Amino acid sequence: MTDTPRRGLTPIRIAQLLLLVAAVVLYVASRLTWVEVESFDELGPPKTIALTGSRWSTALVPVALLLGAAVVATLAVRGWPLRVLALLLAVVSAALGYLAISQWVVPDVALRATELAEVQLITLVGSERHYAGAVLTLCAGVATLVAAALLMRAAAREGATQGRYTTPGARRAALREQTQTPADGSSPVQTSEPMSERTMWDALDEGQDPTDGDTGPEPGPSSEGR
Description:
The chain has nine helices and five strands; from the N terminus they run αββααααβααββαα. The protein is mainly alpha-helical. The protein folds into two domains: 3-164, no CATH class; 166-180 and 190-214, no CATH class. β4 (179-180) and β5 (189-190) form a beta hairpin. α1 (3-31) packs antiparallel against α6 (132-164), α4 packs antiparallel against α6 and α7 (168-178) crosses α8. It starts with a helix and ends with a helix. This is Tryptophan-associated transmembrane protein. Residues 161-226 are annotated as: Disordered. The chain crosses the membrane at residues 12-34, 54-77, 84-106, 131-152.
């Protein structure tokens, strides 16, 4: 039983490592060049403007900071807040996948590139897209999705563990709640909720009879005479 909490923490630690790696990868992707724009206005030599990931998609750096904050949050939250965090990370992973895939499937990036580079469309000579930043972003999205799945699994396992392993004191308290003795000294009243098999065994270990609801051994005639 002592090994169960350690096994439950292992997915959380793996998820923390994945989130940290994803945050670093996103920061690297934000520094890489995503699109290059070449313009010529006939007043000087042609100019080439490089648009980094942070300019092409302003959400990369905030999402990297969010993933870093999620690493810290996994140290503090458990139960249903951990599940909410896992769902949030799943949404973030979907957004990262959209950013990466859109870099590949968009037919023409020239119009948006001229707006970001502040270049007139009439002076545009050509544009070129680079895929390294998009690949890193997609990898970060996959790592975030795996981390979300691990956190959800850890939260579910924690809930199942808490429901399965109950301390003997808690079981005895449940036994006392199920078998209540009135204050006037009359016979005990058995509640409508049936006892579990484990609770019945605990009662037998303590010398009690769980079938009649007594919380202690019945006094016999010999004990009354003494």
